[in-house]
Amino acid sequence: MEYSHSDAELIKQPIGYWSWAAYKAVVSRIQAALAGVGVTQPQWWVIAQVARADTVKTRGEVSGLLRNYLDAGPEVMEAEIDRTIALGWITEDAEGRLGITEEGRALYDKAAALQGELWAERHAGISDQEYLTTMKVLQRFIHNAGGHGWHH
Question: Max alpha carbon distance in the chain (Å)?
């Protein structure tokens, strides 16, 4: 790969710009690929949380976990849960417990395979150690800037 600048110049580049550019490239790629299988990224988050759960999760648990993803917020996540129910991918009982439908499981399997392919695509030529270092550096930047980040 050819880099944008020499090492001496890269050291002086703004992390804000490059972290934003990385975010935009990665998220745009994920969203476009998921759209190709008929699901939005927030709908994927909902389906994945329900499909992967060791124990049944409630609407409140799923919404609470996902509301900070890409600044979605509680209103967006509640609407996405409603949409996944309306599309027949998950169900909700009277106590707010969510379950995956047969159609939802099929979509989950398809989208999960796609996510695996996207992961491999993004990580091509990047060792686990480089990835780990990158995650730690990004978290240090967040901490040093007074921010907070968390992902399940």
Answer: 61
Fold (topology level) of 38-122: Arc Repressor Mutant, subunit A (1.10.10)
Q: How many CB atoms lie within 10 A of CB 96?
A: 15
Exposure string of 21-54, with b = 16+ CB inside 10 Å and e = fewer, is eeeeeeeeebbebbeeeebebbbbbbbbbbbeee
Strands (E), 40-145: 90-92, 98-100
Instruction: Tell me the one-letter amino acid at 1.
Output: M
Q: What would the pLDDT profile of 43-58 be if each residue is shown by its tens digit?
A: 999 999 999 999 999 9
Question: pTM (2 decimals)?
Answer: 0.89
